[in-house]
Amino acid sequence: MKQVRFTFLFLVINFGGLVIGNWLMDNGPMTDWYANLNKAPWTPPGWVFGAAWTTIMICFSIYLGKLFLVENTLKMKIIFLIQFALNVSWNFIFFNQHLVFFGFINITLLTAVLCIYFLKLSKKTNNYKYLLLPYMIWLCIATSLNLYVLVHN
Question: Can you state the angle between helices 74-91 and 100-116, rounded to 10 degrees?
């Protein structure tokens, strides 16, 4: 039952983070700046982003519910806060401020944090660590999209 409470808590926090990130990007994908960028040929249509992030945050919240059940330490809380800050701030850095290079650094660090979760912090979560794969795959795609914009604009 405690894992369900942790999972619910992380669902609220993670979807809240998506709302904050959406607010911080200030209609970014609809702006002339973004529309006029030379984007990667593999850039998915807009609806894919919503479907992907919904799936990612559900899986990530279930994973975090298990992780915090078995190892609820200050270290885990700090790593989660770093991940949260990097995830939410990317929208502001890239879409609002148009700082493509700093957005690339941000998303690369976020990807590294997810790899730390997967490789180092998941020893006690058993197969729950595989719930991180959608997030990790999406971050690899998003990092490549950000890098393409950086190199080709």
Answer: 150
pLDDT tens digit string along 97-153?
999 999 999 999 999 999 999 998 888 898 999 999 999 999 999 999 999 999 999
CB-based contact 62:128 (threshold 8 Å): yes
Residue among 112, 140, 136, 5 nearest 59 (CA): 136
Q: Work out the burial of residue 3: count CB atoms within 10 Å of its CB; fewer than 13 is exposed, 13-18 middle, 19 or more buried.
A: middle
Read off the amino acid at residue 35: A
**Do 141 and 107 form a contact (C-beta atoms < 8 A)?**
no
Rg (CA), the chain: 16
CB burial string 11-44: b at 16+ within 10 A, e below: beebeebbebbbebbeebeeeeebeebeebeeee
Kindly state the DSSP code that residue 148 receives in the 8-state scheme: H
b/e code 55-72 from CB counts within 10 Å (16+ = b): ebbbbbbbbbbbbbbeee
For CA atoms 100, 106, 112, 118, the dihedral sign is negative
pLDDT value, residue 137? 96
